[in-house]
């Protein structure tokens, strides 16, 4: 019976060769390259190794034992992104492992980037090749820590492990499951992205709802600054006012109409802008020809 790749095995050193050692388990023989050892080994010595396929497709061993194995999950760093194929992650061995595009979001702009982290396990495809598989809601169900009600309205950080149009789901530093509704984010975070937000609700099942949007006062200041810079970059005038269509506002500024009106009101109160004929002008531009 062939030895399972992606798992740890106890094997016996059969013999030493120029490139390393040959290990055995019954009739199975596996190469352990000398760069994958930890010191000199003796014939008949029993050692623990992790098995994987090298670039030639041969089953090889390493004495570097990764935390991520078949049926065992842990975080893995994204080290390469390949369009139309997927992303490669490092699990602590010489070879990076592919996360197939089939297990990534349909929209590539929310694929992980290099440096992001994915919570994955190992599995094999129909050809027996190792793949890294991101955790799903079904696997994670009930495995999260129970969040106390005392964390409501406090800052929270975490990493996205699922994302779609409805919202994003994160695993926080404390092990809580956090849901970010699409209305509580300005843009859809990437899978594997680290995000910083605040708790807006602690639910009965111990999960939390999270917002990536700032508090209204803080948000108004940031939005006002963004709108002012947008006006300045567009020759002092934009075709928006507090009567503009909410969808047009969202497409341009990625904020709600209510947030836009609050920020615009702040700028008008400070005497920085004026509105006229459905447009907004810098105050010093008010006498320009319309």
Automatic annotation (TrEMBL):
PROSITE patterns: S1 (PS50126). It comes from the Bacteria. SUPFAM superfamilies: Nucleic acid-binding proteins. GO terms for molecular function: nucleic acid binding. InterPro entries: CvfB_fam, CvfB_S1_2nd, CvfB_S1_3rd, CvfB_S1_st, CvfB_WH, NA-bd_OB-fold, S1_domain, WH-like_DNA-bd_sf. Signal peptide: none annotated. Gene3D superfamilies: Nucleic acid-binding proteins, Winged helix-like DNA-binding domain superfamily/Winged helix DNA-binding domain. Residues 153-213 form the S1 motif domain. Belongs to the CvfB family. PANTHER family: CONSERVED VIRULENCE FACTOR B. This is S1-like domain-containing RNA-binding protein. It comes from Terrihalobacillus insolitus.
